Predict the 3D structure of the following.
Amino acid sequence: MPLHDENSRPAYPPMLIRNKNPNYLTTGLKGIAFPLFVIVFWELASRAGVVNAYFLPAPSRIYETFVDMLRNGLLARHLLASIVRLTYGFLITVFFAVPMGILAGKTRTFRLWVSPMLSFLQQIPPIAWIPIFILWLGIEEASKIAVIVYASFFPVFLNTIQGVTSVDPKLVETGRAYMLSPLEMIRKVYIPSAMMFIFVGLRLGLSNCWRALVGAELIAASTGIGSLIIEGRQLAQPDKIFVAVLTIGLAGLCIDTGLKYLENRLMPWEKAYQSGEQR
């Protein structure tokens, strides 16, 4: 069980306490009002011939293409290829970035050694490494996974460091008073206390690697959502390009929502804090 300090409970803002039961229906309607207006205006403009359908196909045409691609399995095949690459790359990132972040957060000497190099690498966009990764690892899956790992490593690593260094010293002293071993300190004190920061890093890293993956597939891939965009460009099918772009956004939203759900399940106290319910 993680150690807790009763005196370290955060104060709940009065505004959060008053809004215990927000109207989700009203919030949802407000959120879709503007996109719905844009879609209707777009459709009317396309039907009236105000815009060139070759460059900007009507939403109804995009929807028809989307349904056709679902029926023939083309969209599912490309999306599955991207999801598999994303899963492998992100799991590798978590395996390396979280332990390294914990070590850097606990050990100041290690942090001083790695910080200059990592600060330099952080400034280089992942897409700049794609030609090098292809040269080193070939044009197959390894180069794309390397791009994913590079893109997602820094958010996870840096947020883990921030979480570990922000642990309440009282909790650390309590753990030492209980004579916990270093591994027990990490498992019972540092990880539970830094979990919110770690999940923020995971969500940022997952978003980064999803975008970087699509960029890598645009350059060198025969399958995946990025390659579907290239295929639409080569065949002069803008409706297919729009389907791929919308799929990228929807898939990214679903992935982030799933990770947020997992976060709420593993850390119910954060949900209580956000809703203003003291437990």
